[in-house]
Amino acid sequence: MTPPLKEVEVVGLGQACVDFLGRIPWYPNMDGKVEISEFHIQCGGPASTALVTLSRLGIRCSFLGAIGDDEFGKEILKGLKEESIDTSHLRIRSGHTSQFAFIAIDMESGNRTIFWHRGSAPHLLPEEVDLSCFSGAKILHVDGLMLDAAIEAARQARSMGMKVVMDAGTFREKTPELIPLVDVLIASEEFARPLIEDSLTPENAIEILKKMGAKDVIITLGYRGSVGMEEGEFIYQKAYKVKAIDTTGAGDVYHGAYIYGIL
């Protein structure tokens, strides 16, 4: 059951897609082929996967975004509702297609390769963002793709006393406008590369992103863990050693878990 809007604790804004996942014993050469041993279809996307993580941990969530009215869009809507995520503010674009991805997962390592198509559904617009109904929300989570809408949402969230968390995967033209509105910026190691002329390290990435206005910055390092800064001191967290089955969405789950920790 989806929660009443006033009881929503985390609002997520960003992209959602359909993932077609298959596990393979090896990657074929050009013009080669390989049999898929396992196959799954599920809802994916950075912001939506973070919300699924939170919902499974008992946190009431709502997703804001835009999808097409095609079969993939119906699958996305179904997947979010099955995870008890409110979709009343998810825009469905008539006559447009939704984003989808084919994901090949190596059976030995769990690492994946993604082939994706954006779809034709126009992004969520700033004028379509209204957070006023989420009076009990504590956190806004944005994935940095729909930047105009994310900036507007972050401004509204700040005025309502909500914390803003950003999943920073790709540095885009308007990203510098969003960063000063962010309380917690969780970035990939490569996110800050366009800003750094010298050799890129997680530490100098944190320093430059904090100078751009983000309050707290965490850099994820894959199997090596993550690093952040507290009162001017770098804090390192090693990853737990596990047997990886499928690394798809691992970073998105990290974002959801981090949000759970600061609620």
Question: Nutshell version of this structure?
Answer:
This protein is α/β, with parallel strands linked by helices and 263 residues long.
Explain what this protein looks like in three dimensions.
This protein has one domain (5-262): Ribokinase (UDP-N-acetylmuramoyl-L-alanine:D-glutamate ligase). Helix content is 24%, strand content 28%. The protein has helices at 46-56, 71-82, 147-159, 175-178, 202-211, 250-262, and strands spanning 10-13, 17-24, 38-44, 61-68, 90-93, 100-106, 112-117, 139-142, 163-168, 184-188, 216-220, 226-230, 233-237. The strands form two sheets. Strands 5-4-1-8-9-10-11-12-13 form a nine-stranded mixed β-sheet, with helices on both faces. Helix 1 (46-56) packs across helix 6 (250-262). The model has no long low-confidence stretch (mean pLDDT 93).
